[in-house]
Amino acid sequence: MFYRALFFVTLISNADAYNILVYSPTISKSHMIQNARVGDALAKDGHNVTVMELEMDEKAGSLNQVKHAKLWPVVHDWPERPPVPHMDAGNPLDWQLLKMVTLLKNFLEPYGTSCSALLRSQDIMNQIRDSKFDVIMFEQFDYCPFFISHVLDIKVKVWMSSCPVLEHQVMLSGIPSAYSYSPIDGYSDKMNFWQRFLNMVASFAFGYNFNSFWGNFHQKLVEQYGPSFPNPLDLARTADLLLINTDELIDFPRALPPNVIHIGGIGMQNVNTTLPVEYEKLMQNGRKGVIYFSFGSIVSTEKIGQKYMKKFLDAFKKFDDYFFIVKISNEDEFSEEYAKTIENVKTAHWVPQPGVLAHPRLRLFITHGGYNGIMEASQFAVPLLSIGMFGDQPRNSKLVERNGWGLSFDKTLLLHGTKEFEERLREMLENPKYKKNALRTAKLLRTKPQTGEQRLLSYIRFLEENDGHLPELRSILSELSTVEYYNLDVWLAIVVVATALILILGSLIIMLAKYLTKLVKKDKME
């Protein structure tokens, strides 16, 4: 009887479940992993989930990260994404981000090309149509899913961000601008005048240029579908939810509308931390413990250059009480050979990162500041020395420093030698406050009322139970003009009225003064 009841409950659950498409361009391994985690979490919750890996940089299906959802690798003859920016010795100043903003069109061009090809592919579009998806979920860079949802009438659109919310999403999602305290580059939330100026210019330029690219894409859509096709930016404003891969405990606090949800940390609670025998042996090295160095999958140590990598390795050599595990890119032959001359350094092309971070002998994680790595380190209470390279990484590095469980380091200081880097490294190893604050952060994450995964599942169910739309949560801010948002017309009216009152009052005072002067003169004459 019990099994029969369970069978009917399962049928009801599956009947109520959403049919979800997670649209995942393979721009980097970390993005693919995050999208796979989202898809798997929803699949385990009873939804029918397909993760569509659209091949761009990485080979579709190559990571084998999708465990519970269906994986749909889509391969097409699309151009590769431009090379990722790396350490630039010729541009060490704060304007580096603005230079990256000017290159934004080159970054987005492959997305536009791939989108045009996809929309013209009858085979792919028919497969999506025939699957009858209820929901399409997708990341921040590619607006193509908005167009797909409109053409194929997929009702529910869930926008995501694989990193802290970006400025183009702020502009279209009704999020209040926060230029004075929400940094886009390597600043903290306490900025001086010059930093606030740069932050405002860079934030606006990034968001405007990003949305201009997709706004200009409208002409191609009109050519294919006719003049009635909506503007891409208007479609972007219709997203039902915006899910951010951040945790509010590990981000700069800012005001967010109620349809913008933190879901950071998905899939990290139950990660396998068992180390292979080889790495368990490595973790026993170092009289005072082990330090782990990794710049993730998107920052190539070979592209960083021999000069910089030699400086890192030479600095590690001086801390001979510690053993360094240094993850390098496959093509970095220099670092691999040079490290063989240093007793307390071991290089590797692949490292079981969760197991290393969870190990009790790990003392420090030297990272590029990618958000997934920061989230993993926070779960295991590992202090961070963060060297942001590009994108959100310098910002994330300052975030860790703000909350007291790490320090940031400006990569351009390596141009002048390793002294400053060694000082930061020594400070982190000798001052116990960083470990203490890391333990507090881990406890906060462990004891918070809802995890990111619980929020993801509950909000998707909430959507499902309420016809797939939550206009009650959507802020009208994105529909306001600049004049309305900043109340410029109201302030102008106040200034005009105040000026008029001052002029009238001044005129009355002058008239009264003249009148009194006449009275005084008249009295004297009499």
From TrEMBL:
It catalyses: glucuronate acceptor + UDP-alpha-D-glucuronate = acceptor beta-D-glucuronoside + UDP + H(+). Coiled coil: none annotated. Its EC number is 2.4.1.17. Pfam families: UDPGT. It is an enzyme of class 2 (transferase). Keywords: Glycosyltransferase, Membrane, Signal, Transferase, Transmembrane, Transmembrane helix. One of its GO terms (molecular function) is glucuronosyltransferase activity. The chain crosses the membrane at residues 490-516. InterPro entries: UDP-glycosyltransferase, UDP_glucos_trans. Residues 1-17 form the signal peptide. Belongs to the UDP-glycosyltransferase family. PANTHER family: EG:EG0003.4 PROTEIN-RELATED, FI06409P-RELATED. This is glucuronosyltransferase. It comes from Bursaphelenchus xylophilus (Pinewood nematode worm).
